[in-house]
Amino acid sequence: MSDRPLFVTGATGALGRRLVQEWLETTDRTLYLLIRHKGLHSAADRARKLFAPLGLDGMVGGRIRAIDGDVTKPGFGLSAGDRDLLRAEASEFFHIAALTELNGRKEESERINIGGTTEALRLARDLLERGRLERLFHFSTAYVPGSLRTYHAREDELNPDPAFANHYESSKHEAERRVRGAMAEGLPVTIFRPSIVVGDSRSGEVTEFNVVYPFFKLYAHGILDVLPARADETFNVVPIDFVTQAVRALSSRADTVGKTYHLVAERPPTIGTLLKVKDTEFPRMPPIKLVDPDEFDQTRHSFLVSRIQRYIEPYLGYLRCKLTFDTTNTRSDLDGMGVEFPETDYEFLTRILQYAVDKKYLIA
Ligand SMILES: NC(=O)c1ccc[n+]([C@@H]2O[C@H](COP(=O)([O-])OP(=O)(O)OC[C@H]3O[C@@H](n4cnc5c(N)ncnc54)[C@H](OP(=O)(O)O)[C@@H]3O)[C@@H](O)[C@H]2O)c1
């Protein structure tokens, strides 16, 4: 088991927190976490608060080293002391931080996702040249081709003709383009492209109801009742534990440098299955009417509903996935590592919705 220290951005987010928890519980590694201070709360305060419910807050100052910084600032805004510490210590760098809001503003999405990744690349080069860094892991998304057009995404390329539904997709595409450029110049990078990350495969548990959950909420709470989609269309969700296990397995292999991995469901569920789960397992949730997208006319609805329908447009490409994903690298390099592609069937959908209901995020 490797005991080399890690440098991680985005540790306060859904994926980052879960990864950090697993590294703390299953390795002896020291984790340098870049966390931005919020108000009067320093990085260390935030780390203590974050890990207290897991009983891991006692590790802050020990195996958890919280470093104040912001990915949008030059050099992440690190103090000279912290930069020297990272040069002396960090052997692997996980750039996870991003603005993940699908309806985020253009400027903010670009500042965090493109600007933050550009700074990550600059810092990685510095740590490689002057420190003991060995490699960088970049968290991209399976939606870098854009979700508006039918496309088979390969792991070894970035769609040169993307069709974006929102600024999240366009900014993550540009960020990955820059990472691939650096990789082509010899920077030792591995790229992960998860699809939509949802709750744990066994318990449905998730710490943040983000990305697609707010969309579910609009329907579960009866704010929207019409879904412009077809029953046989699929949406690609993956349980968070599959993503973290795959990341840990693939990052432990030396031969994954220079490669990209789709962390997706190979057999994604259909909208029809989702509605069946809702009707059968959660009969008290309001009914949802499927309308053929070609016949869907926003103007036939009330002013409020048409406004909300416009608001959810950035999400529709996720619920009506036109993308299919090549998983050659993921399949071959996870082989024999004890990590299987997830089942995202009726039972799984029931578990993730049940968890959101139990936590009173969704009413049923
Ligand atoms: N969740 C998904 O469905 C999904 C799917 C595909 C790809 N991904 C990718 O996986 C990564 C993690 O996603 P997630 O769902 O865990 O995201 P998340 O829950 O939204 O967390 C985002 C993280 O980024 C940090 N961050 C944002 N702006 C920052 C800044 N200026 N400086 C420092 N930190 C900043 C946040 O810190 P604060 O706490 O300070 O806000 C938080 O820790 C992202 O790169 C995302 O694009 C996620």
Automatic annotation (TrEMBL):
<dbReference type="InterPro" id="IPR026055">
    <property type="entry name" value="FAR"/>
</dbReference>
<dbReference type="InterPro" id="IPR013120">
    <property type="entry name" value="FAR_NAD-bd"/>
</dbReference>
<dbReference type="GO" id="GO:0080019">
    <property type="term" value="F:alcohol-forming very long-chain fatty acyl-CoA reductase activity"/>
</dbReference>
<protein>
    <submittedName>
        <fullName>Linear gramicidin synthase subunit D</fullName>
    </submittedName>
</protein>
<dbReference type="Pfam" id="PF07993">
    <property type="entry name" value="NAD_binding_4"/>
</dbReference>
<feature type="domain" description="Thioester reductase (TE)">
    <location>
        <begin position="8"/>
        <end position="246"/>
    </location>
</feature>
<dbReference type="InterPro" id="IPR036291">
    <property type="entry name" value="NAD(P)-bd_dom_sf"/>
</dbReference>
